[in-house]
Amino acid sequence: MIVYAGRIGDTRVAVRALRPDRAARRREVDRFFCQAQAAAPCGLEPLDLGVDPFGAPFLAVRRPDDLDLGPALLGLDVLFQPSDLGHVSSTDTDTGIFERLNRQRQELLRKVNECSRQRDRCVGRYVLLEPIEHGPGTLWRGWDTDQNEVVDVRVLDAARAAPGGRLARELDEQLVAAERLRHASLQPLRDHGVDGGRLFLVRDHVVGAPLSPSTPLEQLVSQVQQAAQALGYAHGLGCAHGGLHPGNVLVRGDRSVVVVDFGLAAAAAATGEAGIAWRVARAGCAPPEWVAERADDAAGDLYALGALLFRAAALRLPEQPAPPGAPDVPSDVLAIAERCLAAAPAERYAGALDLVRDLEKVLAGQEPAARTPRAPAAPPSVTPASVVDTLSGVFKRWLGR
Question: I want to staple 63 with a disulfide (CB 3.0 to 4.6 A). Which of 11, 72, 157, 347 is the partner?
């Protein structure tokens, strides 16, 4: 971590930035933003919190006029664990800040130049700098050579979705639809393509932390509501996520929510990547209809969102027993989660916007519609013939026929 002192106009500030090499690691970025959210309770007024065009997260806080630089940085030491502070200087000036930032950016540009000479580090017009996470495929911190900014690039093996095939055409249609989505709580898909047998998906560089169990319940309900609004917008345009899990519903530094990786589930299915299905199932977000391969992805998104709400509020997965000392989940919140988690899709909310309205009622202190019992729907029938048909369909999709 690096802490600078300087001014924004006449306001004295302390700026703390995450070094670019550590910004490539999602855990470091998540921790940075979680800690940044604690600035206000510590008496430090956040002035700005975000990511610069080079991908480095930063936090600027107001330095009280009656404190010199030493105590101000001591406050940051309390806010951010001392072991995180790689460099603290009490002699930085405005010029020093810019000099240091310019050096960091020059290092990044040298990295871009170095990687751009390696064929396996280039897809389309994008340069792959550092891997962020694996599965499905590899998520890279990348560089857009046209826009000169940091982006997220997901790279998957496109052998099964070769250009010109049916899978490639269907996938391209789904990704083009995902590129049209424009919502404040959705990470936009900027570009996609195939280069050298590799499918790549390019998105804005977004940093944030998963929904946290330590979040106050009212704030958690508000965050789930934001995610549901984004999903309702996407569902209205015929796009479903199909792969929600804790890692792709993120809370940014300003406590707003962003749903990431729209289109990834379709890309993973087309390329035979199993990583996303494993993550969804492990997090308890896989709807029961996935077993029968008759998934309605919009209804599946609601199931996953209910699982995320339950997991963050109850500190456990829906199917797990309550551990000793587990918090009591308010009955209204529990009713909403249980409506989302209904085994039959027809017993869930009719749409994401219905879920939004129920969450709004909870925030307003009103009884949600989920507290009103609904007539149970008949469970889906599974016969030997349907099992054979399902297995046949799976193998045909796998063979690309």
Answer: 72
pLDDT tens for each residue of 206-259: 878 888 877 889 999 999 999 999 999 999 999 999 999 988 999 887 788 999
Nearest to 184 by CA among 227, 248, 244, 243: 227
User: In the predicted model, what is the mean pLDDT of the chain?
Assistant: 75
Q: How many CB atoms lie within 10 A of CB 65?
A: 8
Give the pLDDT confidence score for residue 266 in this predicted structure.
Answer: 85
Residue 96 has pLDDT above 70, yes or no: no
Lay out the sheet containing 11-17: strands in order across. Answer: 46-51, 57-62, 11-17, 2-8, 87-88
Q: Which domain holds residue 153?
A: 119-178+186-204
What does the alpha-carbon distance between residue 174 and residue 181 come to, in Å, rounded to a whole number?
Answer: 11
How much is the pLDDT for 10? 52
Domains in the chain: how many in total?
Answer: 3
Q: Please, are residues 301 and 352 in contact by the beta-carbon 8 Å criterion?
A: yes
CA 120 from centre of chain: 26
23, 91, 152, 158, 260 from 140: Cα distances, Å: 12, 36, 6, 17, 14
Q: Are residues 24 and 123 in the same domain?
A: no
Distance in angstroms (rounded) separating the CA atoms of residues 27 and 251: 13
The answer to whether residues 6 and 93 touch, using CB atoms and an 8 Å cutoff, is yes
Min mean pLDDT across 5-19, 272-286, 316-330 is at 5-19
Q: Is residue 114 part of a domain?
A: no
338 and 254 housed in the same domain: yes
In a domain, 215, yes or no: yes
**So what's the pLDDT on residue 87?**
34
Distance CA 151, CA 142 (A): 5
What pLDDT does 114 receive? 94
CB of 154 closer than 8 Å to CB of 147: no
Pair (68, 32) in one structural domain: yes
- pLDDT of 137 reads 87
Q: Which of 174, 306, 317 is nearest to 240 (CA)?
A: 174
We report the CATH number of the domain holding residue 340 as: 1.10.510.10
What is the Cα gyration radius of the chain?
23
Axis-axis angle for helices 331-340, 352-363 (nearest 10):
180
pTM of the model: 0.70
